[in-house]
Specification:
- The complex is a heterodimer.
- Chain A starts with a strand and ends with a strand.
- Chain A is globular and about 45 Å long.
- In chain A, strands 2, 5, 6, 10, 11 and 12 form a six-stranded mixed β-sheet that branches. A four-stranded antiparallel β-sheet of chain A has the order 3-9-8-7, with no helix packed on it. In chain A, strands 1-4 form a two-stranded antiparallel sheet.
- Chain A is mainly beta.
- Chain A has no helices and twelve strands.
- Chain B has no helices and eleven strands.
- The chains are: A mainly beta, B mainly beta.
- Chain A binds chain B through residues 4, 32, 34, 36, 42-46, 49, 51, 90, 92, 94, 96-106, and chain B through 4, 6, 31, 33, 35, 40-45, 48, 55-56, 58, 90, 92, 94, 96, 99-108.
Chain lengths: 113, 114
């Protein structure tokens, strides 16, 4: 079985500040790691993923996440946030067999002017 | 390429009633997973359908059931609705035939049980 813990339920930051959203996971089997973003009243959008290889993965809109196997973490970072980054962010682990995703409780990122 | 679509967008039902939610998978995908997202929480896995058969189930009672059709679209049925069934129901499509089985989500159906 897998579990995901997102360490901060809410993260308020000012525009252009750096941000880190923390995610720890546990699993007895190999997993893939994902970050999804959810804007109000919408579904989930895949932000980035770690499958194998380089432990640092990047998205097209400036977010990056680093897989740390020893600490079982997959923290999400952005060096400079925009108002439009305000959303709920979910960390998830996926079984390599391709079945279920297990999500954390989410972190609400609020970017203030 | 058509994305994942769900219908209806919103639904209001009374406790004890039955409801059917629908999902059309993304072109080229043969697998549909359903998730329940209660207010303020992360999505919880309900079950997955692959080639018209259930392929994994989360901790949900049997009154949650599903179907997958030959065109890979899917239905989620919930019988004997309870107040706690009020949630956003998300469907995700993927392909089990090729790694890494990324799941792409639809916009969801907001179910309110009164």
């Amino acid at each position: 079985a897998q579990s995901v813990t997102q360490l901060d339920s809410q993260v308020p930051v000012f525009e252009e500040a750096p941000v880190e959203l923390r995610c720890n996971y546990s699993s007895s089997v190999s997993v893939y790691l994902f970050w999804y973003v959810q804007y109000p009243n919408q579904g989930l959008q895949l932000l980035l993923k770690y499958l194998s290889g380089s432990t640092l993965v990047e998205s097209i809109n400036g977010f990056e996440a680093e897989f740390n196997k020893s600490q079982t973490s997959f923290h999400l970072r952005k060096p400079s946030v925009h108002i439009s980054d305000t959303a709920e962010y979910f960390c998830a682990v996926g079984e390599t067999s391709g079945s279920r995703l297990t999500f954390g409780e989410g972190t609400q990122l609020t970017v203030n002017p | 390429e058509t994305g994942v679509t769900q219908s209806p967008t919103h639904l209001i039902k009374t406790r004890g009633q039955q409801v059917t939610l629908r999902c059309s998978s993304q072109s080229g995908h043969n697998t549909v997973s359903w998730y329940q997202q209660a207010l303020g929480q992360g999505p919880q896995f309900i079950f997955q359908y692959y080639r018209e058969e259930e392929n994994g189930r989360g901790n949900f009672p049997p009154r949650f059931s599903g179907l997958q059709f030959p065109n890979y679209s899917s239905e989620l049925n919930v019988n004997a609705l309870e107040l706690d069934d009020s949630a956003l129901y998300l469907c995700a499509s993927s392909s089990r035939d090729r790694a890494p089985y990324e799941q792409y989500f639809g916009p969801g159906t907001r179910l309110t049980v009164t």
